[in-house]
Design goal:
α4 runs parallel beside α8 and α9 (147-156) packs across α10 (164-172). This protein is 50% helix and 11% strand. By secondary structure, it is an alpha/beta fold.
Length: 349
């Protein structure tokens, strides 16, 4: 299917673009009143994720409401451990909870390497429905969690400031950690390849808990597995790696076979660019900047664009948009990216 807007794909490949493409992590969600209206009719988050037609509807909502340059499939990184046999619950106002956790080699042995069509077919169908409904308006992004981040939830059982149980496993039982990471990685590779077959034009790997590891552990227990995932994807599908807090891992990221590196809001792209070669950078406005006045949002966005420069940049936030953000401020951010980045290129001409 021919794309009417392929800016983000060209930017990811390092090609010249007429302006900077823009989208937001968590754009399909609670900032939009149309999402809240749909969610209120359902039993909960998981019903929405597991109903392909509804997931597709939510995926497309920000394309209509915000005019972003890409859609990202509405799903969750924790569908992977569930597909492997470890069920999670999404507790309102608390987040994810695993009633059972991985504690032993026997627990790892009981987990399966999931078959994408059999165990994650609802996500693949949501991609197919979304791709058809988009009809080439913008590219569709598929995603998964990085193996370390998935392990952290499977061992800890819930979100945590320290993930001390998961990190303890790396120190005390590294072989067990690698056995679990192996199954997660094999599942994730098959899952992401199936997402491409179902219609994803590009992929993102989220390493949400990268920043709680020390540099050596990150290299051993995270970056190496992310590298395997990136290398296993089709050559024509750009892959973005977003590792929150991993400011120490740029040497690792430079070697990853991905096209784009996402930066959180604490990183300076002017310092990162020399360390990662010709890779495209994504990010990285502080999500809290969107709480400011329209003038403040505009100024912060322009400052961000100037730091990244006019090429090899995909504009985004430095993390997911917060649920109580005013959609009007999001529109100011998006409109400013489009207007100012176009002006930056015209000034260079």
């Amino acid at each position: 299917m021919m794309l009417k807007n392929d800016l983000i794909l060209r930017a990811a490949r390092g090609e010249q673009t007429e302006r900077t493409p823009v989208w937001l992590m968590r754009q399909a969600g609670r900032i939009l009143p149309e999402y809240r209206a749909l969610r209120a009719k359902l039993s909960g988050f998981k019903e929405l994720v597991e109903t392909p037609e509804l997931a597709a509807e939510v995926t497309i909502q920000p394309i209509d409401a915000l005019d972003v340059d890409a859609a990202i499939i509405f799903s969750d990184i924790l569908v992977v451990p569930e597909a492997m046999g470890l069920t999670y619950e999404m507790v309102e106002a608390r987040g994810p909870l695993f009633p059972e956790t991985v504690k032993s080699a026997a627990d790892v042995e009981r987990l399966r390497v999931a078959d994408p069509e059999e165990h994650l077919g609802y996500v693949l169908e949501a991609l197919r429905v979304t791709r058809k409904a988009l009809n080439g308006r913008v590219p569709l992004i598929g995603f998964a969690g990085a193996p370390w981040t998935i392990l952290a939830y499977m061992v800890e059982g819930h979100g945590s400031k320290t993930f001390s149980k998961a990190r303890r496993m790396l120190f005390q039982e590294p072989e067990l950690a690698h056995a679990l990471l192996r199954k997660i990685t094999d599942t994730t590779i098959a899952y992401l390849r199936a997402q491409v077959e179902a219609g994803a034009n590009m992929l993102q790997v989220f390493d949400s808990w990268a920043g709680i590891l020390n540099p050596q552990h990150y290299h051993t227990f995270s970056a190496s597995y992310i590298g395997e995932i990136c290398a296993a994807m089709p050559a024509d599908i750009p892959v973005t790696v977003f590792a929150k807090g991993a400011y120490f891992a740029h040497q690792d990221f430079a070697q990853l076979p991905c096209r784009t590196i996402g930066l959180d809001w604490n990183e300076d792209p002017r310092k990162v660019r020399p360390l990662v070669g010709d890779k495209t950078l994504q990010g990285n406005l502080d999500p809290c900047a969107l709480y400011g006045s329209p003038e403040q949002v505009r100024a912060a966005t322009i400052e961000m664009l100037e730091r990244f420069g006019p090429q090899r940049h995909i504009a985004n936030l430095g993390h997911g948009v917060y649920p109580d953000t005013n959609p009007d401020r999001v529109r100011v951010f998006i409109d400013t990216v489009k207007e100012h980045s176009l002006r930056m290129r015209q000034d260079l001409a």
